Amino acid sequence: MLVVNNVSKSYGKFLVLKGINIEFANGVYGLLSPNGAGKTTLIKMLTTLIFPDEGEILYDGTEISAMGDDYRDILGYLPQEFGYYKDYSPKRFLRYLSALKGIDRKKAEKKIEQLLKLVGLENVANKKMRKFSGGMIQRVGIAQAMLNDPKILILDEPTAGLDPKERVRFRNLLAELSRERIVILSTHIVSDIESIANEIIMIKDKKILYKDTLKNICKILEEMVYETKVEFDEVPSFRNKYFSLSEKQEDDKMKVRFISEDKPENSWDSVNPSIEDVFLYVYKDEIIKEE
Amino acid sequence: MNIRINEFKKVITSPIIIGLLILFIIFNSTIIFKSSYIKEDLEVLNKIVNKFGYKIDDKMISGFKSYYDKGLKRLNILVNERESKNYNSVSEFYDDHNYGIEDIYDKEEIEFIRELGIVEAYYYKIGEIDDVYSNIDIMEKAENEISKYGLKGEAANTVRNEYRDFNKRFHQLVNNKEHKNLFYIGQIYRMHSLLFKSLFKSIIFEIIILTVLITSYLTNYEFENNTEAITYTTRRGRNFILDKISAAIVSSILAAGIILITGLGLYFMTFDYSRLWNVPISSYFNADYDFVYMSWWNMSFVQYLFAGIGVIFACMLLFIGITFIIARAIKNNYIVFVIFAIIFGLFLIVPGMAPRNSNAIFIGGFTPFFLIMNPFIWFMESGAFTTFKYYELATVGIWSVLLLILGTLSINRFKKQDIAR
Amino acid sequence: MDIILNELKKIFNIKSVILLILINIIMYFLFIEFEISVFPNGRPPLDIYNMFVEMEDDYGEFMDEEEFKDFKVKYEEAEREADGYIQSRKDFKRAGIMNYDDFVNMDTNNKELKKLNNDVIFKRKVDVFWELPWREEYIQVYGNREDYMMSKASNEKQETRIKEILEKNLETSVFTDVVFFNYDNLIKPVAATILLSVMFMITPIYLRDNKDRISYLQYTSKTGRKIFKKKIIAGLLASAIIVTLQFICFFSIYSTNNTSMFFNSNINSIYNSIISWYNLTFIQYIYLTVIGIYILSFTFTLISMLVSSIGNNYITLIGIQLPIALFVFVILLNYLIHYMTSIFYPKYFLELSYIALMLISTVSMIVRWRKERKTDILY
Q1: What is the pTM of this model?
Q2: Whole-number pLDDT of residue A290
Q3: B interface mutation test: which of C315, C320, C331, C379 has the most B CBs within 10 A?
Q4: Shortest Cα distance, chain A CAs vs residue C377, angstroms
Q5: From the CA of A102, how many Å to the nearest CA of chain C?
Q6: Are residues C132 and C159 both part of a single domain?
Q7: Phi then psi for C133, rounded to 5 degrees?
């Protein structure tokens, strides 16, 4: 059990997170919020790269900074913009990291072979990474995060830069890896977590806004999400009246998906809210702020 | 050109460049300050030049002689008065007073004697000139140089030919009486070496360091910051590299200018050359360390100074070119710098390895690396390897052409190259 | 330790090693080669060297009064040889030079006589004429050696030390400045080359990983921030390897100068240019310079690592390391490697300086390490 207890963090005078309380048990958690909301800051605190100004982070009751090596021994981390040695092959790179992770050499060799197979890189195990595509590099990143069979696996924007096929592959991989461990997936690509997250955590205004199952979070917008077809020239005024979630061209008209708290009109179809709708709704004032 | 201004700003806001500039200015100042104590002695010459001008002709000599004789007379009156002695010269006087004169004479008198001693030095030196120059045998110097370096065959003949040319110039120099001009006595004050060796060399190396850092920094900036994918795909595109080159040139000129102005400014504020600007650089008095400086052309001191500054700027541009070509090939600024230093070293060593009997041995001297090592003998007779009338111009000229070609090739290659990760 | 081994491999990557070798080759040919290929350098150093080899052969490490008498005899023999040579030449007879005495006293302003002088000395390079003036000089010096030594003192402490030397007769040691000066001229550029090599190889050590954010993976692994300490160890090991290899090369090359016969001679000889606070033999002095250089490389390894961990790009590193390097080569080495233990420096100057350097670099590194353990990783 990983517990974040009343944690706050500022950079100089700029407050990023305040009074964050979360409990993580085994399962997949989606950390969903726009960029700049504090996702990366939280993750860096969980991975000991930065330290909270207030509050503490506990694993099984002990503060992680007091645990020292033992905490990182059970940690697997794939950072955003994952750095690597261009002249190394994935095998050599994983060997290097195994040493850092304190894994016995023989065990490491076996594990490396397994993992390279798991991420589908066994054919290029000895090729220099400078020749790899973005997706291949990410897969090396996932492999290294799993080297020590971590109890806490933290992935920061792991599918950024992957094409849809690679993203599907990744999702399947993750489903397999998520047994018997805490997996924290930080992303703003909703489809990544829709299918696999047990709970979704949304951060807003420096605090935790929601931490709940997908189903429960979507309930916020129950009976408020509709779809209807609108003539093209009426779209702008429509947008002014209702909060538009998405727009699609269909049969010479614009199919608009939107939120309304009023009584529905006949031409409107009520639809089930998705997590993406909640995301847009919850953060709409931040989007407006930017415009 | 906003783009170029932005590139330029990258340089002038770099704390490292500014920090190094300040460090270098301080260092140059210490070089000057260490020798600043002699500036009072130098005033004596200025007094003499005020009275008699610096050109040494019969009129000047007779005027100067009576000036000196008057002084000597005054000295003897004083000495007679205090010690009942008489001396024929100030050096005789000093020889006899090994244990100091502070208890016999007061401050003003000591000052007077000291100044007279300096006047005497100039007087005697004037007397030496004809003798010294009639003993100068240019072809003998050539032979000395040839045996010093063990040159044979073709190489030896080349040296002899060049010195034969120089001999003609030497005779011209003597006829023009360029050597017969007063200047700060080199053998005592060594001003030529202070300015054109110690100060110039230090300035040159500082400019090289800044130039290489600036050029490398700008050339590889986008790759360092992972912005190559967005900058080289704009409308300006790969021509952006041209903006970088021009910003490198402008900022290097600025940096070099700052170092030169502060260094030379401080130098000329400390040492008063105001009456001596037009003294020919081949003046006998310039000679320090057994060297008699003889230039290929009739140049005044100020002309020589500006010619030297010109060479410095020209070489600086050459180094920008060299660094650019290296930086284009190697994206790591650390390695670029080290490779530049290695190339520098190689160009200094390899010339010495050519066989001593072929003309190939001279080729190695015509590089900017070799050229900047001896700024105090530019445009002058300077030994077997650099005594060519157009040595400096040829080196700069050849390398300019070479680097323009190589640089253009490098840029063209860049325009066609893949810009990968 | 696997981790340290990996870090060592990163330091000794093939590109850097090649550049390192090139740097060493260039430094060798620019600053060192001359003192090796031309030793002894010209005349009279060659003659002095030969003289001292002979003295060491005949008299051992010291030349006592008995042996000095023999030295004077050798002088007389040499003089007779010179006389014989002069008398064998008709042109000398014609000029009125009958023996060595005449030769030495002749008026070199006279063009004819100057020509004869140059012929013997510079053109034909007759050995004995190069030797004689120095034999004479050395005899004179030996005769006045007490005064000669004492005149070098400019304060009481130096006087006391010189008296100590005189008491033990160390000044009669058979050791010449030709050998010592040559070693000093060699060890300074060798020290510079070694320090340059160390700085070059070590400086990228932290920046390399920080730039590419590999440190994210390192710091979040089990080893965590301890990697910082392991890099310190790897760096120190690497520089020890570099320094040792370079010393092996240097001393192999130096042995071709053939100075080993003087290894056990005391350096405080009147014929040498150093007076030391300590009774060192030549080989002990050599050991001292070696130790000094190891300490200096230790210090500058730490300093390079410090700079590497605070800079954020290579230009910054070069911009900081360059003035440091220039300061070391132009100033520091002249005090810490040049004429070590000379009485013209205060007595404990050397020890204090080295200790100060080690302390400053070690303490700075410890402070840096402490900071790295707690600091936010933000880049």
Answers
A1: 0.85
A2: 52
A3: C315
A4: 5
A5: 6
A6: yes
A7: -55, -35
d(CA C173, CA C263): 11
Average pLDDT, whole number, for chain A? 87
Query: Is A26 a domain residue?
Result: yes
Domain assignment of residue A237, given as a range: 223-272
Distance CA A267, CA C264 (A): 109
Q: Please state, in angstroms and rounded to a whole number, the distance separating the CA atoms of residues C99 and B21.
A: 65
Are C53 and C60 in contact, with CB atoms under 8 Å apart? no
Q: Report pLDDT digits (tens) over B190-205.
A: 999 999 999 999 999 9
User: Would an 8 Å CB–CB cutoff place A209 in contact with chain C?
Assistant: no
Note whether C155 and C28 are same-domain residues. Answer: no
pLDDT, residue C101, reads 84
* Cβ neighbours of residue C252 closer than 8 Å, sequence gap 6 or more: none
Do residues B411 and B328 share a domain?
yes
Nearest CA in chain A to C377: A49
Chain C: residue whose CA lies nearest to B23: C323
What is the number of other CB atoms lying within 10 angstroms of the CB of residue B372? 23
pLDDT value of position B159: 92
Same domain, B198 and B175: yes
- Identify which of C54, C27, C70 has the alpha carbon closest to the alpha carbon of residue C325: C27
The 3-class SS string of C124-153 reads CCCHHHHHHHHHHHHHHHHHCHHHHHHCCC
Whether residues B10 and B113 fall in one domain: no
Chain A and chain C share a number of CB contacts under 8 A equal to 74
Nearest CA to A158 among A28, A26, A45? A28
Q: Are residues A130 and A234 in the same domain?
A: no
* Tokens of residue C284, six digits: 């002990």
pLDDT digits (tens, 9 = 90+) for B255-267: 999 999 999 999 9
Q: Is C364 among the domain residues?
A: yes
Q: What is the mean pLDDT of chain B?
A: 91
Subunit contact B213:C315, Cβ cutoff 8 A: yes
Count of the separate structural domains present in chain A: 2
Instruction: Tell me if A52 sits within 8 A of A219, measured CB to CB.
Output: no
Short-list C107, C100, C102, CA closest to C129: C100
Burial (CB count <10 Å: 0-12, 13-18, 19+), residue C227: buried
Q: ipTM score here?
A: 0.88
Given a cut of 80, whether residue B386 has pLDDT beyond it is yes
Contact B308, B390 (CB under 8 A): no
3-state secondary structure A115-162: HHHHCCCHHHCCCCHHHCCHHHHHHHHHHHHHCCCCCEEEEECCCCCC
The answer to whether the peptide bond before residue A164 is cis (omega within 30 degrees of 0) is no
3-state per-residue secondary structure call for C183-196? HHHHHHHHHHHHHH
Taking CA atoms, A185 is separated from B85, B228, C123, C219, in Å, by: 104, 30, 89, 20
Distance separating alpha carbons of residues B117 and A96, to the nearest angstrom:
77
Residue A6 DSSP code: E
Q: Within 13 Å of residue A1, how many CA atoms lie on the same side as its CB? A: 7
pLDDT digits (tens, 9 = 90+) for B131-151: 889 888 999 999 989 988 888
Q: How many CB atoms lie within 10 A of CB B68?
A: 20
DSSP annotation of B195? I
- Which residue range is the domain that position C328 belongs to? 2-40+174-374
Contacts of A217 (CB under 8 A, 6+ apart): A200, A202, A210, A275, A278
> Rounded to an integer, what distance in angstroms lies between the CA atom of residue A79 and that of residue A137?
12
Residue C242 has which token pair?
Answer: 């570099």
Cis omega before residue C44 (within 30°)? yes
Q: Which pair of structure tokens corresponds to residue C245?
A: 């290899």
Coil vs helix vs strand at A186: strand
Other CB atoms within a 10 A radius of the CB of residue A194 amount to 15
